[in-house]
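A student in our group prepared the protein record below, which I am reviewing. Thanks in advance; the entry in question is below.
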Amino acid sequence: MDLHAWITQQVDETEAEGRAMLLDPTPLLRRCEADRRILAIHYAVEDGYFTACDGCGTAGICDDWVTENLNDCPILLALAHAHGITDEILASLDRPTPSEPQQRDGRRLGLGDIHATPPITTSQVPAALRGPRWKP
């Protein structure tokens, strides 16, 4: 369970407690909805090297991730603090890592592979398009 999943679990529990309250739970439910909206913005995205926070975005000439690991997102850490996270809980959470890249079969990619179209040979050119110096 990473930081995002831990906060989601805490929001679910808080919302359930709020609905069970005998008093007006509206402010608590509004807070849970606000937390869910923040969680919807700050989520993990893989780029092959990092499991970064999409909500924090990129910066710089090379579009480096502002937050290279979701568990380091300052917004999610602030939310977690509001839900009572401790240093021990944070240390016990999984740090998201990018999935392993798919293995290639060893051959080089050609232009036809890149564009996902079969290569065209000169024998497939219609006669109407062949010029006076046509060589098949």
User: Anything to note?
Assistant: The mean pLDDT is 82. Residues 3-20 form the longest helix (18 residues).
